[in-house]
Amino acid sequence: MINRVVKNAEEAVKDIKDNMTLLVGGFGLCGIPENCISALVNKNVKGLTCISNNAGVDDFGLGLLLQTKQIKKMISSYVGENAEFERQMLSGELEVELIPQGTLATRCLAAGYGMPVIYTPAGVGTEVAIGKSVRTFTYNGETKEYLEEKAFEADFAIVKAWKGDTAGNLIFRSTARNFNPMMAMAGKITIAEVEELVEVGQLDPDQIHTPGIYVHRVFQGQNYEKRIEQVTVRKRG
Amino acid sequence: MLDKNGIAKRIAREVKDGMYVNLGIGIPTLVANYIPEGVNVVLQSENGILGMGPFPFEGQEDADLINAGKQTVTLLPGSSIFDSAMSFGMIRAQKVNLTILGAMEVSENGDIANWKIPGKMVKGMGGAMDLVASAKNIIVAMQHVNKAGESKLLPKCELPLTGIKCVKKIVTELAVLDILSEGGFRLLERAPGVSVEQIKNATAGKLIIEGEISEMVL
Asked: Which of A123, B54, B190, B197 has a CA-to-CA distance to B89 between 20 and 30 Å?
């Protein structure tokens, strides 16, 4: 069986260079590749374009790469949970492209499915449509306008899974799945960090979310903080 | 006049047995608290949950289990988890029956603006543009007027749009209105203690009043 294992985050990100485009999995702070983000901070690569649903918080997630000014451009659907992000955006140091969340997910999916464009009604008639081709289709008896959106082309995808095997097969846990599977499919090179790395044969093939063909490097992550952005609880009884 | 919980309570009456429902952040989230016993609905959270349950008990929070507002939640029996592409797939394919969300402005032809105030910090549209572009049944929960006392029900939205010709119904602290396909806010119900005159004064867009307007039942 093909072996996709690398030693650690440092080895996994070794050839990520300045000005590259990265897809980074996670929703808020849930399911983010913590180890790879730290390794990129240590490596100090600059001018990155990061495609990720959110931009972390001041001192965690992609916020760490913002603090060190390693990100040139963010492509996200919802941002601004951190003050440094806001400062860099308003001062023009950081370029920000906001796109609808479903469009973000589907542009990843299209890349993984080998389809150069998708058509979506999201953003029709809004500023998101500016400069984009609009087509009218009749589908299920409904005639609507759709925007043409391009599949992402990214140098690397960096994702976080719950379990993975040495062949790169991945299983995600709960809502930490979010953008990770379709980003894993969309990278020219995909790096997966996992909470538990097992030998081939240990994962049930029927339960695999992302087949190893999409995953070029996998490693056992360490010291997961798994910070919760908003702890909300109810009272007992 | 209704408070936020009152608006949520009135909207809960629009939620019917067997529906799959997506609730936005703010007042829409409160709707879940007022869905009557015996009305079985499945709540969708666009980060990848069908069958979202209430907040966990203290000490049972799971960092891997959050809703689209990034709050810790629980799963109900029969729930399912999926990825973001499938989540918006089921929204785009109109499998989700009802979408309830907040707004900064709604126009008399059903346009909605709720994601951006130019010149201020812009946080983004999240999933709102996808939801309003595809959902067949959209109810807006919002205040009738803004903090400056200006109407949020307008002839035309002034803020950048989230979607066009999509809002079907609006519930505010003053009234329940629907939006006619030919344009215009049709007044359906008044909030307790609110006069038609008050609603007229608070509505900048075309308001259509047909016959006697009854007080809403909560």
From this structure: B54
- Spatial CA neighbour of B178 closest among B109, B112, B128: B109
> What is the rounded CA–CA span in Å between residue B71 and residue B66?
5
Q: Which of A126, A208, A235 to mutate to test the interface with B (most CBs of B within 10 A)?
A: A126
Q: Where are the domains of chain B?
A: 4-215
Tell me the whole-structure pTM to 2 decimals: 0.96
DSSP code string of A165-234 = ETT--EE--GGG-TTHHHHHHHEEEEEEEEEEEE-TTSS-GGG-SB-GGG-SEEEE--------SB---B
pLDDT in tens, A151-162: 999 999 999 999
Among A79, A108, A116, A107, residue whose Cα is nearest residue A94: A79
In angstroms, what separates the C-alpha of B133 from chain A's closest C-alpha? 5
- Is the ipTM of this structure higher than 0.85? yes
From the list B45, B54, B133, the residue facing A234 with the nearest CB is: B54
How far apart (Å, rounded) are the C-alpha atoms in residues A15 and B96? 43
